[in-house]
Design a protein that fits this description.
By secondary structure, the protein is α/β, with parallel strands linked by helices. It contains 16 helices and 17 strands. The structure holds N-(iminomethyl)-L-glutamic acid and fe (iii) ion (FE). The site of N-(iminomethyl)-L-glutamic acid (NIG) has 13 residues, from α4.
C-alpha cells in the first residue's frame, strides 16, 4: 500500500466505495484497437474519489482511501455492484416529430427500407412530422427521450438534425439540440445533417448547392448567436445510393471544414460509394454504419484516426441478415465504436445496454469489447476521448452503477434495464 502523509490527502466531495467490480477501458492514448479493445481494467473491491465533477482517483479501495479526506463528502455504496464509465452514444437522430410505427408493421410484412421509402415513408415521412413541430415541441420531445436515455446509462450522446430538410426547419432542429444540451444532464454533441435526404420536389444538385451556400453558413451563424463553439459542431452526409453522391459529400465537407466544423459520414449502409476512404482522407472523426464496407476501406480505417461507428440496432430493426463485419475490423486494427442510431424509422431503439447485447450477439464482440466500443471509442468518435469514456484520474465523473456484479451480465440482460444509478459530472441523477 502506498504511504501518503495526511496533509497531502485530497479533500473530495464524493466517494463511491466499496465497489464490487470496477470495469473500464484504460489507455493513455486511445482509441483502443485490436486486442486492446478486449483488455479493459478490472478492479475488485475498488473505489472512486470525485472532486468538482472530476475523478481524482479510481482504483483499489485501500489505495484510494489512503489518498483522500472525506470531511463532509457524500459516500455511495456499490457493494457487489459493477461500476463502469457512463455510456456514450456516438450516433442518434433523437430529435424528430411524429413516429413511423406503420413502417415497422410494413417491415414485418416483408417490405424493405427502400420499398417503404418509395411509398412515401422513410426520412421524408419524419420530415413532415418534424416540420409541423415548433422548436418548443422538439425540445419537449427531445427532453423526454433524453430522460429515458439517461436512465439507461447514456451520459453523453451525439444528436443529428436531418428531418427538417429546408433552411428554417434544419435550423429549428439545431436550435432544439443546442437548447437541450444546456437544460438537462446528458451532454450532447450537435451534428448538422441537412444532407440526410433530398426533400421531395427538389433537384439533388440544387439542394446540395443550397446546403453549401446557405444552410451551413446559417448553422455556423446560429451557433455563434447561441455562444456555442462552431468547432464543436459536426457535419454529416448520408452518402448512399438514392441519397447523396461521393462528389456531393466532398463538396459539403469542404465547406464544413472552411467553417471550422468537424466531419462524420453515413457510409456504406446499403452500398459502398467511397465515402469511407473520403472520411479517412478528410480527417472525419467517424464513418458510421459500414455494412457494405470493402476490404480496402477496412485497411484504410485501420491506419487512420477515423473511428468506425457500428450500429447493430439498425440492421436488427431493419430485419437484415447482414451486419457490419466487426470481427474483421477489430482484428485488423480498426478503432470500433457502437451507437444506437436511435431514430423514428430504421432503429427505434435508444438503449445502449441493448446495443451492447446486439454487439455481442450479432457482431461477435466480447462484453469487454462492447464496453470499450460504447465508452472510450465512442468518446473518440465525438472528439471527447480525452475527457470522457474512462474511469481514471482527471476524467469527467460520468459513471454508471449497475444492478449486476459482472460486466458480462450487461449484454446478457439486454431485455431489461440493469442500470441502478447514473452520475453525471459528479452529481447523482435522480
Ligand atoms: O442512420 N441512414 C440514414 N439515416 C438513418 C435513417 C433515418 C430514418 O429512417 O429516419 C439511419 O439509419
Ligand atoms: Fe443514422
Amino acid at each position: 500500500m502506498v504511504e501518503v502523509k495526511s496533509d497531502t490527502k485530497v479533500q473530495i466531495d464524493l466517494l463511491i466505495s466499496p465497489i464490487g467490480e470496477l470495469a473500464t477501458p484504460h489507455l493513455d492514448s486511445g482509441p483502443a484497437r485490436g486486442n486492446a479493445m478486449d483488455s479493459i481494467k478490472k478492479v475488485h473491491d475498488g473505489a472512486i474519489a470525485i472532486k468538482d465533477g472530476l475523478i481524482v482517483y479510481a482504483g483499489r479501495r485501500e489505495e484510494v482511501l489512503s489518498k483522500v479526506r472525506l470531511d463532509n463528502a457524500t459516500t455511495i455504496d456499490a457493494t457487489n455492484k459493477l461500476v463502469t464509465p457512463g455510456l456514450i452514444d456516438p450516433h442518434t437522430h433523437l430529435v424528430f416529430g411524429g413516429n413511423r410505427h406503420e413502417e415497422f408493421a410494413m417491415r414485418c410484412q416483408g417490405k424493405t427500407y427502400k420499398e417503404i421509402a418509395d411509398q412515401g415513408g422513410g426520412i421524408v415521412a419524419s420530415m413532415r412530422g418534424t416540420r409541423e413541430a415548433t422548436v418548443q415541441d422538439l425540445i419537449g420531445l427531445g427532453k423526454q427521450r433524453l430522460e429515458r436515455i439517461l436512465a439507461h446509462g447514456t451520459t453523453s450522446c451525439e444528436v443529428k438534425t436531418g428531418y427538417g430538410l429546408d433552411r428554417q426547419s434544419e435550423l429549428n432542429m439545431l436550435e432544439a439540440i443546442l437548447t437541450l444540451d444546456s437544460m438537462q444532464p446528458v451532454e450532447l454533441t450537435p451534428t448538422f445533417m441537412p444532407a440526410h435526404a433530398v426533400p421531395p420536389g427538389t433537384q439533388r444538385e440544387a439542394y446540395v448547392t443550397e446546403v453549401i451556400e446557405d444552410m451551413l453558413p446559417a448553422a455556423a451563424e446560429l451557433a455563434k448567436k447561441k455562444a456555442y463553439p462552431t468547432s464543436a459542431i459536426y457535419v454529416d452526409v448520408f452518402c448512399d445510393e438514392g441519397y447523396f453522391t461521393l462528389e456531393d459529400t466532398k463538396r459539403i465537407f469542404d465547406k464544413a471544414i472552411s467553417l471550422g466544423m468537424k466531419l462524420k459520414v453515413h457510409s456504406d449502409e446499403f452500398k459502398s460509394l467511397g465515402a469511407t476512404a473520403l472520411a479517412c482522407e478528410m480527417g472525419a472523426h467517424s464513418a458510421d454504419h459500414l455494412l457494405a464496407i470493402t476490404d480496402s476501406d477496412i485497411d484504410r480505417l485501420a491506419s487512420s484516426s477515423c473511428v468506425a461507428v457500428l450500429l447493430p440496432g439498425t440492421s436488427f430493426f431493419l430485419n437484415l441478415k447482414e451486419h457490419a463485419p466487426a470481427r474483421t475490423m477489430i482484428d485488423k486494427g480498426v478503432a470500433v465504436a457502437i451507437g444506437s442510431d436511435f431514430n423514428p424509422g430504421s432503429c427505434h431503439i435508444f438503449s445502449m445496454p441493448f446495443i451492447m447485447g446486439l454487439a455481442c450477439l450479432k457482431l461477435g464482440m466480447t462484453a469487454a469489447e462492447a464496453l470499450t466500443a460504447a465508452t472510450m471509442n465512442s468518446a473518440y468518435a465525438i472528439g471527447r476521448g480525452e475527457n470522457i469514456g474512462q474511469l481514471r484520474e482527471g476524467y469527467q465523473a460520468d459513471i454508471v452503477l449497475w444492478n449486476v456484479s459482472k460486466l458480462a451480465e450487461i449484454p446478457y440482460n439486454m431485455g431489461w434495464n440493469s442500470v441502478e444509478t447514473v452520475i453525471k459530472k459528479g452529481a447523482k441523477c435522480e
